[in-house]
């Protein structure tokens, strides 16, 4: 609680507030007894009421009060007044170092001088066995006379109530609510040493590391280890190396080496004593730019040697004459290297019509989506690794500018999320529609939002903002911000049909004036390349054309630069599956223009794992369903531009498949309980709603739901009595499971309300229970609830990534997909009487199935066989799809050779 000015606390009279920090509130006060101004720190209540901690602090405070150094703000005393623990400290006037850095990088000369005084303060304290452990720019004051004062010296150690070698459950944190506040005082995340961040033993070398962070920040103007949250900052400290190339070019080589050793993650390789750092700074203060050292021929790296050496080289070259240059060999060209990464046997790209491939800005890591899971493949590793927490239907991976994060769209819940490449929980950023391409620039992520236009979302989270709307009938795709920070390049498609993306316009539009210029006609998924080109897709070929960011015009005609690139069909986003890094590495998925999904085969498989493929051609099937009488199947076929409809097939054979739906795009068939009708999702009336139609094709389809704006409805399951249909409402915002009673007013009612998503509902055979997949915990899990809902809820998942449940016909087991390193079907024994109980998940011997979209398998009425999707090769069709990523190193050089800009 804030203390008002004029309040008297013992001999101290509060004058005003100076600020609030992790270790308490600070006030300007007057010591009425001695007639001097002081800084009065009021320690937190949790600290002041811990008698053991107070006693320990009193012992430490005596040591702190003994510090007497011109660069250390003095501790005058400690008192407990009215239940509050107060520290009387030297009042240091002036700005903090953080405020100075906030205005930009500090000059090398000034930075070295400030660092030298900080080092002297640390050295003096270390000699008395006192470690700061919370050194940061905000704890350094700069007086008008140039004097540097380090504040809060030793308080971090003094206020810590536990030994420094804490266990993994008590690792440092910035949360005030953390375990009796002990974690707060262990340091500020961005300046912690790695051993401090891990909660391991610390000594004076942890101050050396923080000192290096402060000096680096002065020279560069930004934090050494950035992060928007405590978790991000700690991850940065542990995983990233400091970018020493960002230091001013005129920095002394000795200064660069000093920083490198201060910032060593291994304390054994770090400077052991700040006194040694101070001695090195003595020399650097006299020669901060390293000019004298360079003139002496100092053994510093060639790239850091400065003007005098360069001048000498120029003079020598002039004397040698032009003949010498005639014989000088040309610098070697960088090799253009091509190779392929073949996905493991059990991985297949998730072809949902959106982008599934990305590469980090530095070209070191590839991200791709396979089996509805995000994978990361380092260029240095042989295999890719799955990213935990992304085992749901996702697409459009995009790296952050520093390569530490990957953003993606979680399709079922309509969320934009990001996750650290090192793993951990994903972070929700915003509600979005299924994206038509994305780009992460600085602190913003730009998204193609189709009919809504181009959207912008803060990388720190917030509301989705439509920055460039489009007109009715138009679709916006793949925004790319140009270097001026104002103009966006994106694709504008109109209408529908087989060729809408190949006939699209590539435009440039100003965020400020909204003025739009058509750059190219015919092509899509355009990307700006820093070599001075635009590249874009036309069919399965990527073309390049010179492009000026000044005139916003192309120069010359397009040239093919990459052929045989896989691309989504025009009925979807028209996404072309290629990406490139800032340093010129290219990755692409080979293929051509495909449907939304790759072709698969349909097969029956028994509980022993024996497969019997159906006598049907391989096609892009999805959502297969067996009729309750066991005689027919209904399945969605997504052939992209050619067809996206529901088809019916007689399992007895003798007839070919029969197309059931004809108007619009129709998907997700669900049989009625009497096997006479099929419910499905359709956009035939302009929005995605639920319809049903007689399975024999007679009559017309009847609309069952009216969808909300920017949302969609998709049917899921019929109750055993055939009276209630569950359906999921998705699109922009959380997905909701609803139910529709055909006996009543047909008014939809909410069955499961989720904060993130809930779908794939299935009824028990007795109609008293239903299971579903939910994502409120941050990962997919399977839940069971009574029907009608009573408020009870049971989680049966054993881990994350459990999805697509199905109740067995006898009601004794739940089957679902489990992502345990690889996707597999598992069975869980279920008992509902006299109470609810579940057994252990037992894997079924059913391997190699293809899982995508909603539940991609079904069970026969006798419970003995499953209808699954399998790769075409396993069905003996010989039509094996391509699952590999092609890579080209130094592709920018190839582009410049193929498409000269001058």
The assigned structural class equals alpha+beta
Counting copies of identical and different chains, the oligomeric state is single chain
The CATH superfamily of the largest domain bears the name Transferase(Phosphotransferase) domain 1
The largest β sheet comes out as: 6 strands, antiparallel
Total number of domains: 3
- Terminal CA distance reads 67 Å
In percent, how helical is the residue content? 10-25%
Would you count the extended β strands for me? 59
**CATH architecture term of the largest domain:** Orthogonal Bundle
Radius of gyration: 33 Å
Q: For the residues shown, what is the average pLDDT? A: 83
What's the helix count? 14
Class of the largest domain in CATH? Mainly Alpha
Shape: globular
The proportion of strand residues reads 25-35%
Q: Poorly predicted ranges (pLDDT <50, ≥5 residues)? A: 159-186, 292-332
| CATH topology category name of the largest domain | Transferase(Phosphotransferase), domain 1
Strand order of the largest sheet: 1-2-3-4-6-5
């Amino acid at each position: 609680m804030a203390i008002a000015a004029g309040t008297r606390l013992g001999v101290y009279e509060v004058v005003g507030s100076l600020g609030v920090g992790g270790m308490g509130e600070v006030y300007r006060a007057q010591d009425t007894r001695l007639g001097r101004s002081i800084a009065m720190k009021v320690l937190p209540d949790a600290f002041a009421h811990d008698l053991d901690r107070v006693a320990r602090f009193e012992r430490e405070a005596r040591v702190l009060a003994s510090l007497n150094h011109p660069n250390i703000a003095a501790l005058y005393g400690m008192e407990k007044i009215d239940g509050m623990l107060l520290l009387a400290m030297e009042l240091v006037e002036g700005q903090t170092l953080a405020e100075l850095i906030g205005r930009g990088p500090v000059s090398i000369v000034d930075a070295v001088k400030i660092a030298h005084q900080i080092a002297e303060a640390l050295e003096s304290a270390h000699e008395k066995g006192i470690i700061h452990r919370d050194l940061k720019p905000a704890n350094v004051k700069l007086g008008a006379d140039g004097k540097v004062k380090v504040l809060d010296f030793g308080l971090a150690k003094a206020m810590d109530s536990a030994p420094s070698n804490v266990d993994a459950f008590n690792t440092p944190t910035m949360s005030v609510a953390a375990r009796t506040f002990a974690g707060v005082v262990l340091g500020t995340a961005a300046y912690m040493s790695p051993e401090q961040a891990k909660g391991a033993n610390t000594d004076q070398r942890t101050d050396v590391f923080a000192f290096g962070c402060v000096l680096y920040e002065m020279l560069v103007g930004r934090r050494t280890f950035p992060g928007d949250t405590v978790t991000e900052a700690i991850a940065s400290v542990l995983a990233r190396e400091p970018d020493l190339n960002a230091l001013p070019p005129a920095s002394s080589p000795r200064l660069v080496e000093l920083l490198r050793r201060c910032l060593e993650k291994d304390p054994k390789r770090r400077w052991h004593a700040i006194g040694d750092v101070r001695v090195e700074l003595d020399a650097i203060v006299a020669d901060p730019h390293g000019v004298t050292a360079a003139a002496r021929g100092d053994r510093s790296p060639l790239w850091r040697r400065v003007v005098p050496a360069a001048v000498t080289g120029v003079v020598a070259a002039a004397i040698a004459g032009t003949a010498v240059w005639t014989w000088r060999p040309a610098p070697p060209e960088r090799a253009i290297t091509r190779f392929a990464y073949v996905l493991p046997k059990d991985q297949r790209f998730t072809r949902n019509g959106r982008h599934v491939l990305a590469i980090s800005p530095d070209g070191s890591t590839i991200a791709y989506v396979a089996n509805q899971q995000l994978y990361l493949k380092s260029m240095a590793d042989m295999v890719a690794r799955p990213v935990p927490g992304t085992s749901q239907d996702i697409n459009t991976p995009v790296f952050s500018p520093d390569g530490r994060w990957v953003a993606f769209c979680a399709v079922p819940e309509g969320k934009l999320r990001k996750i650290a490449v090192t793993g951990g929980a994903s972070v929700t950023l915003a509600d979005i529609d299924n994206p038509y391409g994305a780009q992460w620039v600085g602190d913003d992520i730009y998204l193609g939002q189709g009919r809504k236009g181009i959207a912008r979302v803060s990388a720190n989270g917030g509301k989705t903002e439509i920055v460039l709307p489009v007109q009715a009938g138009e679709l916006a795709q793949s925004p790319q911000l140009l270097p001026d920070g104002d103009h966006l390049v994106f694709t504008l498609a109109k209408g529908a049909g087989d060729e809408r993306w190949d006939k699209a316009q590539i435009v440039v539009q100003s965020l400020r004036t909204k003025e739009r210029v058509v750059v190219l006609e015919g092509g899509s998924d355009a990307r700006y390349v820093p070599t001075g080109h635009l590249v874009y897709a036309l069919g399965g070929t990527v073309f390049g054309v010179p492009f000026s960011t000044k005139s916003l015009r192309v120069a010359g005609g397009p040239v093919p630069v990459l052929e045989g690139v896989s691309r989504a069909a025009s009925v979807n986003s028209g996404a072309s599956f290629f990406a490139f890094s800032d340093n010129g590495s290219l990755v692409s998925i080979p293929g051509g223009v495909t449907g939304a999904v790759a072709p698969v085969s349909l097969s029956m498989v028994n509980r022993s794992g024996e497969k019997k493929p159906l006598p049907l051609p391989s096609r892009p099937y999805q959502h297969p369903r067996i009729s309750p009488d066991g005689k027919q199947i209904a399945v969605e076929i997504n052939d992209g531009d050619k067809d996206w409809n529901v088809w019916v097939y007689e399992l007895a054979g003798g007839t070919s498949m029969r197309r059931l739906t004809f108007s619009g795009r129709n998907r997700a068939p669900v049989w009625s309980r009497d096997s006479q009708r099929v419910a499905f999702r359709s956009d035939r009336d302009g929005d995605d709603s639920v319809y049903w139609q007689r399975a024999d094709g007679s009559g017309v389809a009847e609309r069952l739901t009216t969808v909300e704006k920017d949302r969609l409805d998709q049917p899921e399951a019929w109750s055993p009595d055939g009276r209630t249909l569950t359906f999921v409402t998705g699109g922009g915002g959380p997905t909701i499971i609803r139910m529709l009673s055909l006996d009543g007013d047909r008014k939809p009612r909410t069955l499961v309300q989720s904060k993130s998503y809930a779908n794939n509902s299935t009824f028990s055979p007795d109609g008293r229970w239903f299971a579903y997949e939910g994502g409120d915990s941050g990962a997919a899990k399977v839940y069971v609830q009574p029907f009608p809902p009573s408020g009870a809820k049971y989680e049966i998942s054993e881990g994350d990534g459990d999805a697509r449940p199905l109740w067995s016909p006898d009601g004794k087991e739940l089957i679902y997909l489990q992502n345990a390193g690889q996707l597999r079907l598992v069975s869980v024994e279920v008992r509902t009487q006299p109470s609810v109980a579940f057994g252990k998940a037992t894997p079924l011997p059913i391997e190699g199935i293809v899982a995508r979209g909603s539940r991609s398998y079904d069970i026969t009425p006798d419970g003995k066989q499953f209808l699954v999707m399998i790769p075409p090769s396993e069905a003996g069709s010989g039509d094996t799809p391509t699952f590999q990523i092609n890579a080209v190193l130094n592709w920018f050089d190839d582009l410049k050779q193929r498409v000269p800009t001058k």
